[in-house]
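Might you be able to check the backbone structure tokens below? Thank you kindly.
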Amino acid sequence: MKRKFSCGRTCGFQQLCRFQPIFRALGRTRVISHVTKVDIEIRDLDAMKAACEKRGLQLRRDQKTYRWWGHSVGDYPIPAGMTAADLGKCSHAIHLNDASYEIGLVAQTDGSYRMVYDFYGQANLLAAVGGQKCDGLVGDYTIEAARNAAMAQGWMTQDNSDSTLTIFHPDGGSMTVNRDGTVDSNGFIGSGCSVAGIIENAIGKPRETAYKPEYFADRAKIRQS
């Protein structure tokens, strides 16, 4: 017979469910889904290269300076953790054309990159990257970083008409990655949370996870002797 099961869902992110020993004794348990919001971080330069090419931009690896006004005039705050002397210096640069300023990818201590750029009078550059916050470029990067992580695992992917990416796990689960860093996971067996974590961690730091009502659907069949 089938039994319904529910819990307080207090397990931490990617933590093995405390009830798994019971589930294993009863039968197969399907982790239906959860939605995680990821704070996007730039780490995968290959993904950034692909994202740039989609927008007519060029990633120039190992270019140590980026084109900007040339000096701070005090009309806009200097990015946190940087000084005026740091402006214009980078590890890599994103180039549009010789008439536009460039975006610097500045290496951080945790291995990620911060995008630093001067947007004053840069209508063409802002149009190319999708606005002052580079939403378009960052969205493209998110999809490409998730794709690369999936390919590294040997998982199939599918580009969708709404610009999301669906990743198919061999065990039957799937993840839909949105450009804003939201990962919607569905249909995993057993350790599905840790499987989804591979993709979530590839695009940034998971900030919050919302479990759907169907998070645990007990599919155990108890055989009575």
User: Anything to note?
Assistant: Confidence is low (pLDDT under 50) at residues 1-10, 22-32, 213-225. The chain has two domains: 1-41+155-225, 45-72+82-140. Residues 1 and 221 are 5 Å apart (CA to CA). The longest helix spans residues 135-153.
